[in-house]
Specification:
It contains 2 helices and 10 strands. The protein has about 200 residues and is mainly beta. The protein folds into 2 domains: about 45 residues, no CATH class; about 150 residues, Lipocalin (Beta Barrel), CATH 2.40.128.20. Strands 1-2-3-4-5-6-7-8-9-10 form a 10-stranded antiparallel barrel. It is globular and about 60 Å long.
Length: about 200
Protein backbone atom coordinates (compact mmCIF):
# COMPACT_ATOMS: atom_id res chain seq x y z
CA UNK A 1 0.00 0.00 0.00
CA UNK A 2 1.37 3.42 -1.00
CA UNK A 3 1.79 6.10 1.63
CA UNK A 4 2.12 9.83 1.17
CA UNK A 5 5.89 9.34 1.05
CA UNK A 6 5.50 7.35 -2.20
CA UNK A 7 4.30 10.48 -4.04
CA UNK A 8 6.78 13.00 -2.60
CA UNK A 9 10.21 13.66 -4.16
CA UNK A 10 13.03 13.67 -1.61
CA UNK A 11 13.81 17.34 -2.31
CA UNK A 12 10.19 18.33 -1.62
CA UNK A 13 10.13 16.34 1.61
CA UNK A 14 13.36 17.95 2.83
CA UNK A 15 12.02 21.41 1.99
CA UNK A 16 8.82 20.69 3.87
CA UNK A 17 10.67 19.49 6.95
CA UNK A 18 13.04 22.47 6.94
CA UNK A 19 10.32 25.06 6.39
CA UNK A 20 7.63 23.49 8.55
CA UNK A 21 8.58 25.09 11.90
CA UNK A 22 8.31 28.56 10.39
CA UNK A 23 5.17 27.95 8.34
CA UNK A 24 2.99 25.73 10.50
CA UNK A 25 0.94 26.88 13.47
CA UNK A 26 1.90 25.70 16.92
CA UNK A 27 0.88 22.12 17.66
CA UNK A 28 -2.15 21.63 19.88
CA UNK A 29 -1.27 18.99 22.52
CA UNK A 30 -4.95 18.67 23.47
CA UNK A 31 -5.71 17.36 19.99
CA UNK A 32 -2.65 15.16 19.83
CA UNK A 33 -1.14 16.96 16.87
CA UNK A 34 2.60 17.06 16.52
CA UNK A 35 4.92 18.48 13.87
CA UNK A 36 5.12 15.23 11.89
CA UNK A 37 1.34 14.93 11.70
CA UNK A 38 1.11 18.49 10.49
CA UNK A 39 3.74 17.87 7.83
CA UNK A 40 1.85 14.79 6.63
CA UNK A 41 -1.31 16.89 6.38
CA UNK A 42 0.53 19.64 4.51
CA UNK A 43 1.95 17.21 1.97
CA UNK A 44 -1.36 15.36 1.51
CA UNK A 45 -3.11 18.57 0.49
CA UNK A 46 -0.20 20.17 -1.38
CA UNK A 47 1.08 17.35 -3.58
CA UNK A 48 -0.22 15.77 -6.76
CA UNK A 49 -2.07 12.52 -6.05
CA UNK A 50 -3.13 9.39 -7.91
CA UNK A 51 -6.40 11.09 -8.91
CA UNK A 52 -4.44 13.36 -11.25
CA UNK A 53 -3.62 10.36 -13.44
CA UNK A 54 -7.12 10.56 -14.96
CA UNK A 55 -6.35 14.04 -16.26
CA UNK A 56 -3.38 12.72 -18.24
CA UNK A 57 -5.98 11.59 -20.78
CA UNK A 58 -6.81 15.25 -21.46
CA UNK A 59 -3.21 16.39 -22.00
CA UNK A 60 -1.83 17.06 -25.47
CA UNK A 61 -2.92 18.89 -28.61
CA UNK A 62 -6.37 18.45 -30.12
CA UNK A 63 -8.57 19.34 -33.08
CA UNK A 64 -11.96 20.54 -31.88
CA UNK A 65 -15.47 20.78 -33.26
CA UNK A 66 -17.68 23.11 -31.21
CA UNK A 67 -21.47 23.39 -31.37
CA UNK A 68 -23.02 26.33 -29.49
CA UNK A 69 -26.56 27.58 -28.75
CA UNK A 70 -27.17 30.91 -27.05
CA UNK A 71 -30.74 29.93 -26.06
CA UNK A 72 -33.19 27.03 -26.33
CA UNK A 73 -34.56 26.47 -29.80
CA UNK A 74 -31.63 28.05 -31.61
CA UNK A 75 -29.94 26.13 -34.38
CA UNK A 76 -26.42 25.35 -33.17
CA UNK A 77 -23.51 27.33 -34.58
CA UNK A 78 -20.60 25.05 -35.44
CA UNK A 79 -16.91 25.83 -35.79
CA UNK A 80 -13.62 23.99 -35.95
CA UNK A 81 -10.64 24.89 -33.79
CA UNK A 82 -7.70 23.67 -31.76
CA UNK A 83 -6.80 23.06 -28.14
CA UNK A 84 -3.53 22.53 -26.28
CA UNK A 85 -3.28 21.29 -22.70
CA UNK A 86 -0.14 21.01 -20.59
CA UNK A 87 0.76 20.34 -16.97
CA UNK A 88 1.84 23.29 -14.81
CA UNK A 89 2.95 23.79 -11.20
CA UNK A 90 4.74 20.44 -11.01
CA UNK A 91 1.76 18.47 -12.28
CA UNK A 92 -0.84 19.92 -9.94
CA UNK A 93 -2.95 21.55 -12.66
CA UNK A 94 -3.61 20.95 -16.34
CA UNK A 95 -3.88 24.21 -18.31
CA UNK A 96 -5.85 24.45 -21.54
CA UNK A 97 -5.62 27.09 -24.25
CA UNK A 98 -8.58 26.80 -26.63
CA UNK A 99 -9.19 28.55 -29.93
CA UNK A 100 -12.62 27.24 -30.92
CA UNK A 101 -13.14 29.43 -33.99
CA UNK A 102 -16.04 31.81 -34.65
CA UNK A 103 -19.26 31.13 -32.68
CA UNK A 104 -21.38 34.27 -33.09
CA UNK A 105 -18.19 35.88 -31.73
CA UNK A 106 -14.62 34.57 -31.82
CA UNK A 107 -14.41 32.03 -29.00
CA UNK A 108 -11.11 31.60 -27.16
CA UNK A 109 -10.66 30.30 -23.64
CA UNK A 110 -8.20 29.30 -20.95
CA UNK A 111 -8.96 26.59 -18.40
CA UNK A 112 -7.35 25.01 -15.35
CA UNK A 113 -8.20 21.46 -14.31
CA UNK A 114 -7.09 19.58 -11.21
CA UNK A 115 -8.11 17.50 -8.21
CA UNK A 116 -8.99 19.27 -4.98
CA UNK A 117 -7.74 17.13 -2.08
CA UNK A 118 -9.76 19.20 0.40
CA UNK A 119 -13.07 18.72 -1.43
CA UNK A 120 -12.13 15.26 -2.73
CA UNK A 121 -13.48 16.31 -6.11
CA UNK A 122 -12.14 17.29 -9.51
CA UNK A 123 -12.12 21.04 -10.00
CA UNK A 124 -11.83 23.54 -12.82
CA UNK A 125 -11.68 27.25 -13.50
CA UNK A 126 -12.54 28.73 -16.88
CA UNK A 127 -12.30 32.13 -18.62
CA UNK A 128 -13.12 32.96 -22.22
CA UNK A 129 -13.54 35.76 -24.74
CA UNK A 130 -17.36 35.77 -24.50
CA UNK A 131 -17.46 36.63 -20.80
CA UNK A 132 -15.67 38.60 -18.07
CA UNK A 133 -16.42 36.03 -15.36
CA UNK A 134 -14.32 33.22 -13.96
CA UNK A 135 -16.42 30.04 -13.92
CA UNK A 136 -15.54 27.46 -11.25
CA UNK A 137 -16.87 23.90 -11.07
CA UNK A 138 -16.50 20.81 -8.89
CA UNK A 139 -17.02 17.31 -10.22
CA UNK A 140 -16.71 13.56 -9.70
CA UNK A 141 -15.53 10.68 -11.88
CA UNK A 142 -17.78 7.69 -12.61
CA UNK A 143 -15.75 4.69 -13.71
CA UNK A 144 -18.84 2.85 -15.00
CA UNK A 145 -19.59 5.58 -17.57
CA UNK A 146 -15.96 6.73 -17.90
CA UNK A 147 -17.02 10.34 -17.46
CA UNK A 148 -16.49 13.31 -15.15
CA UNK A 149 -19.70 15.12 -14.17
CA UNK A 150 -19.49 18.63 -12.74
CA UNK A 151 -21.74 21.49 -11.69
CA UNK A 152 -21.61 25.20 -10.95
CA UNK A 153 -23.17 28.45 -12.15
CA UNK A 154 -23.11 30.12 -15.56
CA UNK A 155 -23.20 33.90 -15.89
CA UNK A 156 -25.06 34.32 -19.15
CA UNK A 157 -23.57 37.25 -21.12
CA UNK A 158 -26.63 37.42 -23.41
CA UNK A 159 -29.17 37.99 -20.61
CA UNK A 160 -27.06 39.16 -17.66
CA UNK A 161 -28.49 36.33 -15.53
CA UNK A 162 -26.78 33.77 -13.33
CA UNK A 163 -28.01 30.26 -14.12
CA UNK A 164 -27.29 26.77 -12.76
CA UNK A 165 -25.14 24.67 -15.06
CA UNK A 166 -23.96 21.11 -15.20
CA UNK A 167 -21.60 19.41 -17.54
CA UNK A 168 -19.99 16.13 -18.40
CA UNK A 169 -16.72 15.14 -20.02
CA UNK A 170 -17.13 11.73 -21.65
CA UNK A 171 -14.03 9.74 -22.57
CA UNK A 172 -14.70 8.00 -25.88
CA UNK A 173 -11.15 6.68 -26.29
CA UNK A 174 -7.57 7.67 -25.53
CA UNK A 175 -7.71 9.95 -28.57
CA UNK A 176 -11.22 11.38 -28.28
CA UNK A 177 -13.43 12.94 -25.60
CA UNK A 178 -16.55 15.10 -25.60
CA UNK A 179 -17.48 18.00 -23.33
CA UNK A 180 -21.19 18.80 -22.94
CA UNK A 181 -22.52 21.80 -21.02
CA UNK A 182 -26.16 22.21 -19.94
CA UNK A 183 -27.82 25.36 -18.55
CA UNK A 184 -31.10 25.57 -16.60
CA UNK A 185 -33.36 28.43 -17.66
CA UNK A 186 -35.55 30.46 -15.23
CA UNK A 187 -38.55 28.27 -16.18
CA UNK A 188 -36.67 25.24 -14.85
CA UNK A 189 -36.03 23.71 -18.26
CA UNK A 190 -32.54 22.58 -19.17
CA UNK A 191 -30.89 22.82 -22.57
CA UNK A 192 -27.50 21.96 -24.00
CA UNK A 193 -25.69 25.19 -24.76
CA UNK A 194 -22.25 23.82 -25.67
CA UNK A 195 -20.67 20.68 -27.02
CA UNK A 196 -16.99 20.34 -27.87
CA UNK A 197 -15.57 17.19 -29.46
CA UNK A 198 -11.81 16.80 -28.99
CA UNK A 199 -9.82 14.56 -31.35
CA UNK A 200 -6.12 14.12 -30.71
CA UNK A 201 -3.87 15.60 -33.37
CA UNK A 202 -1.71 13.12 -35.24
CA UNK A 203 1.96 13.16 -34.15
Amino acid sequence: MKTWKSFVPLSALIAAVVCAPALLPAADPAKGKDAETQIETLIRYAMRGKEHELLNRLAGTWDTVTRYRAKPGDEPVEAKGTSARKWILDGRFLMEELDAGNLALPFRGVGLFGYDAFEKKYNSAWVDSMNTSITANLGTYDKATDAVSFSGHYKDPWTGMKKPERGVTRFVSQDKHVLELYVTEPDGKEFKTLEITYTRKAP
